[in-house]
Amino acid sequence: MTAADSPGAVTSPLAVDPPPAPGTAPRVFCFHHAGGTASVFTGWQREAGRAVSVHPVQLPGRERRLHDEYPDDMAALVADLDAELSPWLEAPHVFYGHSMGALVAFALTRHRLSRGARLPEALVTGAFGDPAAPPPLEAVPSMSDDDLLDLLIGLGGMSDVVRRYPRWAGPALALIRADLALCTSFQAGPGVPMPVPLHAFAGAEDPLLDSTSIEAWGAHTSAGFTAEVVPGGHFFLAGPVARARVLAAVTAPLTAAAGAR
Predict the structure, then answer these.
(1) What is d(CA 104, CA 85) in angstroms, rounded to the nearest whole number?
(2) CA 183, CA 180: separation in Å to the nearest integer?
(3) Residue of 258, 217, 243 whose CA lies nearest to 105
(4) Taking CA 43 as the corner, what is the angle to CA 39 and CA 44, rounded to the nearest 5 degrees?
(5) Rounded distance, CA 1 to CA 163, Å?
(6) Residues sharing a CB contact under 8 Å with residue 213, sequence separation 6 or more, in sequence order
């Protein structure tokens, strides 16, 4: 009998809840931005329809995983995610990652390539530049909480309402700092281009990202690359036009894979 089987045992919440059911449509696994939660992808299943099964991935330290141990670095996070998600990645799937989530999805794909595991039909990224370059917001460790709060509100990543509730702001800013430290811990290096098609999105008004910088993602794939600039800023997924284009990009490779079988 394992600890999970014993009476009264407490198990860690799943990264994906509910988990994919056998026989579901091809799967899209979505990875959220720094300081964010899986709920940012609420509504995606309804908008995607029945062609795909959408599964937002919840990272530790938030919502239902609030009390889960936070990983020391990106390698530890990716190893944990690979161990949990692997049973559901034997069927056709696509990864979408937004901002920090793009780096997580990339690191997970590279990790799975290194051990010969099944790879996604495509990797789709949003609001993140070359993963081999220093991550954005490197100045955050030296910023005061007030300055960081101003920055996040200006980006649209946090509501101005939080200023009135410092008890909320403190934990939220601590999580942001931890997530960004996680990004800094990842050293992509040149690596070997992955045999995975890659589609990179950037918001036309993103103050953190020159839209041309997403072209650098092309060096990380040997299976085809496209880049697309959509309306909006760093959090362009809030806009229906941009969100529809991202959903089309994650759905198309799975539809093609289903047609090829």
Answers:
(1) 13
(2) 5
(3) 217
(4) 95
(5) 49
(6) 129, 130, 133, 202
For 107, phi then psi, to 5°, come to -65, -40
- From the list 15, 242, 19, 233, the residue with the least C-alpha distance to 124 is 242
Burial of 12 (0-12, 13-18, 19+ CB in 10 A): middle
CB burial class (10 A; 0-12, 13-18, 19+) of residue 17?
Answer: middle
Tell me the C-alpha to C-alpha distance, in Å, between residue 68 and each of 39, 60, 77. Answer: 17, 5, 12
Token output for 113 = 């390539």
Cβ–Cβ under 8 Å, residues 132 and 188: yes
Bond preceding residue 18 cis, omega within 30 of 0? yes
| Type of residue numbered 234 | H
Q: From edge to edge, which strands make up the β-sheet containing 122-126? A: 53-57, 27-31, 93-98, 122-126, 198-203, 225-230
239 in helix, strand or coil? coil
Digitized pLDDT (tens) for each residue of the chain, 261 residues in all: 333 333 333 456 789 988 898 887 899 999 999 988 999 999 999 999 988 999 999 999 888 998 898 888 999 999 999 999 999 999 999 999 999 999 999 999 999 999 999 999 999 999 999 998 877 766 666 677 777 777 777 776 666 666 666 677 778 888 888 888 898 888 887 778 999 999 999 999 998 888 889 999 999 999 999 999 999 999 999 999 999 999 999 999 998 766 565
User: Nearest to residue 100, comparing CAs of 42, 189, 204, 186?
Assistant: 186
